[in-house]
Amino acid sequence: MVLKNREVRCAVAAGAILSAIGAAAAYGLTGMLLDGTGGTSLMLATTAGAARDTAVISLQTSPRTVALVAACCALATGLIVTGVFMALTAIRYRALNDMAANLDRVLAGERDICLRDMREGELAILASEVDKVIARLNLTVDELQAEKLALSDALTDISHQLKTPLTSIAISTELIRDRLAERGDAPEIVERLRLVQRLQGRVEDLVAALLKLARIDAGVIKLVKAPVDARELVRKSFEPLAVAFDIAGVDFETSIQPGAGYEGDLAWSVEALENILKNCMEHTPAGGTVRVRATEDILACRIRIEDTGPGIDEADLPHIFERFYRGKRADAVESSEVAPVGVGIGLSLAKSLVAAQGGTLTADNARDASGDVTGAVFTLVFFKAIV
């Protein structure tokens, strides 16, 4: 395990080479010194009994033998030093692996900091600093989550506070319009009251969209994981817009592969696709067509929405899903009481809803064989497995 590291391998190789060089040097130098002194002898003294007779035994050893012993000692010392280095390195790498495993658990969502494992040393200091960073990041995450929840609660309260006066305005407007219509002497006022009702509906839709975005950001939306049939998804998304498509003079065509579908939340998927269809309808001139094609392969379920409008400006493509972003073509359209321009949250809401289910939403321009833009294209991809 330790030898897999290039630096350790280089250190071990250097230690082995230096040990061999040291052993060779010890052998050569010791042999030269002993050759210069004419050899060496080993004196053994023995004492026998009470007479204390002493016998001296002289053992002659050759210089090469002594040099070989010195070389072996030097080599053994180098190998022992290398072995100690390997053992200490293994301990350090084991500690680093434990630290990496702790970081992986933190990235997976755990927040346990093992203060009992802290010791002295460089690695302990590093682990302590890493734990401090983790603690600070956890505190920051908690603060951000609290802020998101506070924003979600505030928007929820605001939306509930707005619903009551909006409902009262809608009822009062309807009663006044009916009374004036019965009298028949103020057609212009009746028409203006209809406009007030339409604008009041737009305000309600805007408040609802902002509330949904806030709930998504705060992470309080509970998504259901269940099989979603692509045909049912397209049908439910188009139903609320059928009348609007007829009034706008835009055709709607579908091509859905039998059995195509994915695992997700049908209700929120309908919300996302409905926003995309509405955007395509609003940017498609009368006589145009919005087409939806759904397919499924081994990797994912893909839903492609294409219109025959002017397409998306190239400068707007990187920002098309940004909240409250309005492109150059939208800015060129004059706002009026009858046709107020959008505020740029429909596509952002759609992307957030798709991303919350593990899918992706991209935008591009459709082109013909000559490279001319023939409309905008939105592609939803719901993968079967997320790595």
Automatic annotation (TrEMBL):
Pfam families: HATPase_c, HisKA. Residues 157-386 form the Histidine kinase domain. Residues 127-154 form a coiled coil. Its EC number is 2.7.13.3. It catalyses: ATP + protein L-histidine = ADP + protein N-phospho-L-histidine. InterPro entries: BphY/WalK/GraS-like, HATPase_C_sf, HATPase_dom, His_kinase_dom, HisK_dim/P_dom, HisK_dim/P_sf, Sig_transdc_His_kin-like_C. The chain crosses the membrane at residues 66-91. Residues 1-25 form the signal peptide. GO terms for cellular component: plasma membrane. GO terms for molecular function: phosphoprotein phosphatase activity; phosphorelay sensor kinase activity. It is found in: Cell membrane. Keywords: Coiled coil, Kinase, Membrane, Phosphoprotein, Signal, Transferase, Transmembrane, Transmembrane helix, Two-component regulatory system. The keyword Phosphoprotein applies. One of its GO terms (biological process) is cellular response to phosphate starvation. This is Sensor-like histidine kinase SenX3.
